[in-house]
Write a structure and sequence with these properties.
Blueprint lengths: L4 H4 L9 E4 L4 E4 L22 E2 L9 E2 L28 H8 L13 E2 L5 E2 L5 E3 L8 E3 L1 H4 L1 H29 L2 H14 L1 H21 L6 H15 L5 H7 L4 H31 L4 H28 L4 E4 L4 E4 L15 H16 L1 H14 L1 H6 L4 H5 L1 H4 L9 H13 L10 H21 L5 H29 L10 H6 L4 H42 L25 E3 L7 H14 L5 E3 H4 L6 H6 L1
Parallel strand pairs: 11-12
Antiparallel strand pairs: 1-2, 3-4, 5-6, 7-8, 9-10
Helix pairs in contact: 5-20, 6-7, 6-16, 6-18, 6-20, 7-20, 9-10, 9-11, 10-11, 11-12, 12-16, 17-18, 18-20
């Protein structure tokens, strides 16, 4: 129906501009994100601010774009007029329709080359979407021009080269260092347990680097850059695999999820096949040998990969909702429309079915696998015996007290809950963050009471990481509140009322930065303290051992043991009746090594690997 132009020029009694539903000739207050300061704004041509989006020209549901705060400079703001969001604002539905060709983004012009919900899709389906940065708008780049595949290949070759060099250096050190020096290094390693601290830090950063994505929080640029570095470290650069898959023709969330499901399984199968083949070629293939060769690698691989697959799988259930839930689009792939009560999306249903398979295999399947391994080895672990199964699964229990050999299962549940299950809980809301905080505090309380680690330093580090995780989530809640205070409506409050909710973004950034970096700093500090203590202990023992050295009477020089043909040979052979004599032989070996530290002493309980080859040991 035609609407008189004078009727469109409507203001409220207090002078605030309003927009109007022309079809029914009614007025309503302009919502946050609109720019209808003048008179005569209509729903069909409702002008939007930069960083805001609505689904169509007939919708009054204006939503803030996920990248609305990028480029605003000041931390804690939800959006600004000069942000670098792909949602450029405006009131030109014909332009937006031309960009998208599907009606998405009507009334909100996208940046060049972008289209779709929140302007987060590329017009060229084969192009790579590059997110907004503090200095540039989001763009779409061609795979060939970007050189992503070449950079990925060079990165993989670089990582492989570093690994090979490290292995060669370690082998050279092992072959050339004196046995006494090697023994001291082994003692340092056993006393400080750096592998345990590294594992704790990796578990911490696996969660912290996903908080911004899972909880939909815009963190300060400095913190984001730091987290991106840690993210590459804990995921070995697999975070950019989506772009790589796009370049090789695997597009859309469904295809990516298929790759994430099968890739780890293929790697595990390859490890098992290579291990079995190598053992078969040596003629030593047995159940014990296969477990010892395969399980250590598999448990470490799954430790790194299952949180990534978990996060990807749970993304299938999280959607952007518009118009009161009438329409929704998958957050991780806005090209997929979500199933609603009124309409069923075939593509979304397929994605959800595949996601349930991934969830069953990885977060829950891997947890059940580790539980079965630990239960199977529990008797040997509790008694301190080194069996084929307990020795092959040391990665799962070596850092914990024997009574808490199962604590790794608790760590797995925490990762699954915070980066997986929490995706389903009002994503992006303060409720989601508060539930995450409550969970972190409850876990910290249980962890402090249990003190499950053998080493007290590991307990301190794990407790500190759990506390830092809760602090990060509290900071995220404060950022949410700070973003709310930047709204125009909030600024109409009095100065005293505004101060109540004022957030000092700079102080909060320092707190967040310290919390994220604190785990790494604390681990180095604990390691340094333990190294100092171990060095002092070795110095005391060295002084005591000098009195026990075997020396020549003539000149009091130490007796040197003759060289051996190989490291498989021994200077002395000690054995005993299995029923008795074990403790006595242990003391004899200890005393011999105190008198001649470089002597190679064979003791069956330490060095006998195959009972059938006992004569071979005697010959050597």
């Amino acid at each position: 129906m035609a609407v008189d132009a004078d009727l469109l020029a409507v203001t409220t009694e207090n002078g605030n501009a309003t927009s109007m539903m022309a079809a029914v000739v009614s007025c309503t207050r302009c919502v946050v994100g609109t720019d209808c300061e003048g008179r005569g704004a209509t729903l069909e041509a409702l002008p939007l601010r930069s960083g805001y989006f609505r689904l169509s020209a007939s919708s009054d549901d204006v939503s803030r774009c996920p990248d609305a705060a990028v480029g605003c400079g000041k931390q804690g703001v939800s959006s600004c007029g000069d942000c670098n969001s792909g949602c450029r604002g405006g009131a030109e539905p014909e332009i937006s329709l031309a960009n998208g060709g599907n009606g998405f983004g009507a009334g909100a012009t996208c940046a060049p080359g972008l289209t779709g919900v929140y302007c987060m899709l590329c017009e060229d389906a084969s192009a790579i979407y590059r997110s907004a940065t503090p200095t540039s708008l989001p763009t779409c780049v061609d795979c060939a021009e970007d050189g992503l595949l070449l950079r990925t290949a060079l990165y993989a070759l670089g990582v492989a080269a570093i690994v090979i060099v490290v292995l060669l250096v370690l082998e050279a050190l092992r072959s050339n260092l004196p046995e006494r020096t090697q023994a001291r290094l082994v003692r340092f390693w056993q006393a400080t347990k750096p592998a345990n601290k590294l594992k704790i830090c990796i578990g911490f950063y696996m969660i912290v680097t996903k908080i911004e994505e899972v909880y939909q929080v815009h963190m300060p640029a400095s913190v984001r850059q730091m987290l991106s570095i840690f993210s590459v470290g804990v995921s070995f650069g697999l975070g950019s695999i989506n772009d790589i898959l796009t370049c090789v023709g695997v597009r859309g969330f469904f295809g990516r999820l298929v790759v994430w499901i099968f890739a780890p399984a293929v790697v595990v199968l390859a490890i098992a096949m290579v291990s079995a083949s190598r053992l078969a070629c040596k003629g030593t293939l047995s159940r014990r040998a296969f477990l010892q060769a395969t399980l250590p690698l598999v448990t470490r691989l799954l430790f790194l990969l299952y949180p990534l697959v978990t996060n990807v799988a749970f993304e299938a259930f999280s959607c952007h909702w518009f118009d009161g839930g009438e329409r929704g689009f998958l957050i991780t792939d806005v090209d997929i429309e979500c199933t609603t009560e009124a309409a069923r999306s075939v593509e979304h249903e397929q994605v959800k079915r595949l996601a349930w398979i991934a969830i069953g295999i990885y977060p829950f399947g891997v947890w059940l696998l580790n539980a079965a391994l630990l239960v199977g080895a529990r008797k040997a672990i509790v008694k301190g015996k080194n069996t084929a199964l307990s020795g092959s699964t040391t990665f799962l229990h070596r850092e914990y007290e024997a009574s808490f050999f199962w604590w790794e299962l608790m760590e797995m549940l925490r990762r699954v809950f915070l980066v997986g299950i929490m995706v389903l809980v009002s994503r992006g809301s303060i409720t989601q963050l508060v539930l995450g905080i409550i969970f972190c505090l409850a876990y910290l309380l249980i962890q402090m009471q249990a003190s499950p680690f053998v080493d007290a330093g590991d307990d301190y580090l794990a407790n500190s990481c759990s506390f830092a995780m809760a602090v990060v989530l509290v900071c995220c809640v404060t950022y949410k509140i700070g973003a709310l205070t930047e709204l125009t409506e909030f600024k109409r409050l009095g100065e005293e009322q505004r101060q109540i909710f004022h957030v000092n973004a700079d102080v909060l950034t320092v707190v967040l930065f310290c919390s994220v970096l604190g785990a790494l700093v604390l681990s180095f500090a604990i390691l340094l303290v333990q190294l100092t203590q171990e060095a002092a202990q070795q110095a005391r023992e060295a002084k005591q051992a000098l009195a026990r050295r075997l020396r020549y009477k003539a000149d009091m020089t130490e007796v040197a043991v003759p060289p051996l043909a190989s490291t498989r040979h021994f200077h002395t052979f000690l054995s005993h009746v299995w029923g008795t004599g074990q403790d006595q032989m242990r003391i004899i070996k200890q005393r011999l090594l105190e008198m001649m530290p470089t002597m190679r002493v064979f003791l069956d309980v330490d060095d006998l690997e195959e009972i059938g080859d006992l004569e071979g040991y005697i010959e050597r």
